[in-house]
Structure prediction request, 138 residues.
Amino acid sequence: MKTKIKIGDKSYQVEISELKEDLVKVRVGDANFFFSKNEFGEIVSVEAQDEKLKTLVEESGVYLETLAEKEIKTPIAGTLSTIEVKKGDNLKPGQKVATLIAMKMENEIIAETVGEVKEIKVKGGQIVNSGDVLIVLN
Prediction:
C-alpha cells in the first residue's frame, strides 16, 4: 500500500508491505523500517538499518537477517526455570525463549531479533547472573 502523509508542512511518501505473516516493512522515503508482532500481539520494531540487513526470498517465504546482537543474555540474576527453544529453532522478535525466576516472580526472556539457535549455554534450574549468555544465534 502506498500513501502520502503530511505532518505539519512536510510530506512523506510511505509504502507499507507485508513480507510474511508477522513481518511488515514500512518504507518512508529512502529508509526501510521493519515491524513484527510480539507474543502479546503488540507491534514492535525490528531494530536494523538498511546496510545491516538483507532479505532473502525463498519458496517458503521471506526471511529477514540482521547483524544485530547474536546473543541472548539474562537481564537480571535469578534461576532459569525453563528454556523454550532448542538448537536449530528459528527465532523471531517477540518470541519467548526462556523463563527466569527472580525475586519470587517469573520473568519471560524474549528474543529481540531474528536468528537460528546455534547453541544453548544453560540448563533449566541453573542459577544465572545478570548479563550471562543464555543462547547464541547464527
User: Anything to note?
Assistant: The CA atoms of residues 55 and 64 lie 5 Å apart. The chain has two domains: 2-66, 71-137.
